[in-house]
Amino acid sequence: MDLTTREAAGRLGVNQARVRALAAAGTLAARRVGSQWLIDADSVDQQAALIGAGATSRAMASRIAWAASDLADGGRAGWLHAVERHRVRNRVAGAASALIVQRWFGARAVSTRRYAVGADDLEGILGESDVVATGNSAAAAYRLGLTNVGAGDAYVTVAAVDRLVRDHFLIQSTSGNLTLRLVDHVLHLATARTIDGLCVAPRLIVGVDLAEDADARTRAAGLSLVDRVLDEQRTARHG
Fold first, then answer.
1. Which residues form the Helix-turn-helix domain (predicted)?
2. Residue 125 to residue 228: CA distance in whole angstroms
């Protein structure tokens, strides 16, 4: 369901100019119809939940978000200095909820594009050496109990997109079944792990991506995954 900027502003307790700014920045899922914004209601509800949880602090820089996810899964985040790694570990271990991590990871990608692609071609795309599966495409690897039929979700570099479009005949579409999350670094590759033959993003990244899904069950699975990782970090810190 779509909302007008006035309706979205009412739900969020902000003015319409702020809603338009959030839509333009991609924080709220929205589409333009003429000169007007139509805002996705689920996206507004997710933003309202973040506000209600006090999870409105500034997003981490992308390199920090990917480091946090790598450290939480036992990686070394070698691109950080030792002092930075210590701070990031403590920050994650001190996170009060998955919603806060969701906010922190808001800048993990520079943009998101959706493409229409044949279901039979998805396996080949996800198997590319510079593609890292996330969201529903990584759910089976992490045993989340979600069903993923005919859709894909992955991280790629900005430079890789043109090649994927050309090689796999991808057609950009706002309702496409393939979501590509563009990054301007190779940290998605540096932090990836291979599970059951599939190259997947770390759990915190996957969880946050799932938590932004329009489906309530998928969102819940994503938040649960993030909370599980946070529990592990708290236990490790106090153990």
1. 3-46
2. 29
**What Cα–Cα distance (Å) separates residue 205 from each residue in 110, 116, 210?**
14, 23, 9
Q: Which residues of the chain have pLDDT under 70?
A: 50-57, 239
Predicted local confidence at residue 57, as pLDDT: 62
Token pair in block for residue 15 = 């003015």
Query: Which residues have C-beta within 8 Å of that of residue 164, sequence separation ≥ 6?
Result: 125, 128, 131, 156, 170, 180
User: pLDDT at position 183, please?
Assistant: 97
The number of CA neighbours under 13 Å toward the Cβ of 209 is: 29
Considering only CA atoms, which of 72, 67, 75 is closest in space to residue 93? 72
- Angle of helix 5-12 relative to helix 41-52, nearest 10 degrees, comes to 20
pTM of the model: 0.81
Round to whole Å and give the CA distance between 99 and 116: 30
Tokens of 219: 């969102």
